[in-house]
Amino acid sequence: MCWIRVCEADQIQENRPFSGSVENNAVGIYLLDGKYYALEDICPHAYALLSQGFIEEGSVECPLHGAVFDIKTGQCLGGPGERDLHCYRVRRVENHIQIRLTEDTIA
After folding, report:
1. Nearest-5° angle of CA 38, CA 67, CA 54?
2. What's the predicted TM-score (pTM) here?
3. Measured between alpha carbons, how far is 38 from 44 in angstroms, rounded to an integer?
4. pLDDT at 102
5. Calpha distance 27→33 (Å, rounded)
6. What element of type H or E holds 89?
7. Measured distance CA(46)–CA(69) in Å, rounded
8. Distances (CA, A) of 49 to 3, 28, 32, 67, 107
9. 25 with 19: CB under 8 angstroms?
10. Would the pLDDT of 23 be above 70?
C-alpha cells in the first residue's frame, strides 16, 4: 500500500486534530509533542468523530459517551469504547501529512 496525502501540516495543531476521509475511511490526524499520529476517527461504541472530542494528556475522549483512547496507540483506556482503535502509519513530507491505510501496531 502506498502513502496517501491527507492534509497539510498547518491544518493540525496540538489541540485541534484534522478529520478527513481517505478511501472511505474516517481518519483523525493528531499532533502530540511534535509528532503526528493517525487513528480511525469514528468511535467504535457509537457514531461520533473522535477528532471532535476532548484531548488531554495524550488521550482523546469521545464527545458523546466518554470512551477514552490513547492517541499514540489507539488503546481503549476506559468507557464504552468496546475495542482499541485502528492506527495508521503517518509521516510528514515537506508540509504534507501522509498515511498508509494498512493497519499497524504502534509500539
Report:
1. 65
2. 0.91
3. 16
4. 75
5. 20
6. strand 87-93
7. 14
8. 23, 8, 18, 12, 24
9. no
10. yes
Which contiguous run of DSSP H or E holds residue 7?
strand 4-8
Give the position of cell 496525502: 5
Q: Which SS3 state, helix, strand or coil, does residue 69 take?
A: strand
Q: DSSP 3-state assignment of 14? A: coil
Handedness of CA 33, 69, 17, 102 (dihedral sign): positive
Q: Which phi-psi region, left, alpha or beta, contains residue 52 (left: φ > 0; alpha: ψ -120 to 50)?
A: alpha
Q: From CA 35, how far away is CA 44, in angstroms rounded?
A: 25
pLDDT tens by residue, 84-101: 999 999 999 999 999 998
First-residue to last-residue Cα distance in the chain: 20
Position 95: which residue type?
A: N
What is the rounded CA–CA span in Å between residue 47 and residue 89? 23
Residue whose C-alpha cell is 493540525:
12
C-alpha cell at 79: 468507557
